[in-house]
Amino acid sequence: MTIPTTTTTTSTTAPAAEAASAGSGPWRIARRELRRRASVRISLVVIALFAIMAATAPLLSKLGGWSPEEFDKSAVDPYLGGQPIGALGGISADHWLGVEPVTGRDLFARVVHGGQVSLLIAVTATAIVVIAGTAAGIAAGYFGGRTDTVLSRLMDLTMSFPSLIFMIAMMSVARDVNRVVLMITVIGVFGWPGIARVVRGQTLSIKHREYVDAARVGGSGSWRILTRDILPGVAGPVIAYTTLIIPGMIATEAALSYLGVGVRPPTPSWGQMIAESVAFYDTDPMYFVIPSICLFLTVLAFTLLGDALRDVLDPRGSRT
User: Fold this and answer.
1) DSSP assignment string, 65-120
2) Are 125 and 191 contacting, i.e. CB atoms less than 8 angstroms apart?
3) Percent share of the chain, pLDDT over 90
4) How far apart are CA 195 and CA 66, in angstroms?
5) How far apart are CA 45 and CA 178, in angstroms?
6) Is the distance from CB of 65 to CB of 94 less than 8 angstroms?
């Protein structure tokens, strides 16, 4: 009688032991699921390429032989309104992506340095938004009461502002300041309430779970509970939301630069280059196409990666 019981117990516990030895935790399951998606792999490659390009922009421009502010009058035709000499906007061995009309500035150098500025503003503003929004959301959801009321009303107040119009006004009025720092600050100030609302909802559902109650009964303080129990519980949605914020930040920077209230010339950015290229769209379309493709690929890669992370790390949020 004991032999069948022992056999049955062994057969049922063997798969569990194999699963435990394989390490099928939620984060490992998420990594395996993400590896299976071709869109994730392609997005990561595109993001990595643009990140490396932005980080090594000075080296790349030296490799190309031109700085982003250096004029090459021999590459444009003064008798044709400064149009680039040669096909496809003046693409040649000297100028790998052609030149800017009228000025003759190297387009490759301006694209890589413009990517550095655009990604710097987007990533830094996203970091401010995520840190501030996560802290405010956790505090509002966990402490509740007056803290929740004050922070929730502050979220509502910030979201009620017409942010783009206010950004344009701020950037137009503030003239003698660092435009990059100002853009990061203004975008960050108006971006945090969205993620704060998401984190607040997640915190409300987590703080009444058994392991949080057990930690509270065991004598753990609020700081320990917030950092050890609440924060890991909201990490998945925050990571997914972060990758979805970045393309919006890139687009916001490009829109402000396109409207002429972003970074000042001669500092390049993709939005500024697209704005300047509109006047030459008919005669030199490559000047418009190249920065537009860079902006499009970056935004698309982050969007696809964010969608995949949201599906895997926050499946309930992706269905709502």
Assistant:
1) T--TT---GGGEEGGGTSEESSSTTT-SSS-TT-B-TTT--BHHHHHHHHHHHHHH
2) yes
3) 23
4) 41
5) 32
6) yes
Q: Report DSSP state, residue 278.
A: G
What pLDDT does 27 receive? 64
d(CA 248, CA 245): 5
For the segment 88-114, the average pLDDT, to the nearest whole number, is 90
Q: Which amino acid, 57? A: A
* pTM score over 0.85: no
Burial of 190 (0-12, 13-18, 19+ CB in 10 A): buried
- When mean pLDDT is compared across 6-10, 49-53, 131-135, 153-157, the lowest value belongs to 6-10
Asked if pLDDT for residue 73 goes beyond 50, the answer is: yes
Residues in the chain: 320
CA 140-141-143 angle, to 5 degrees, is 70
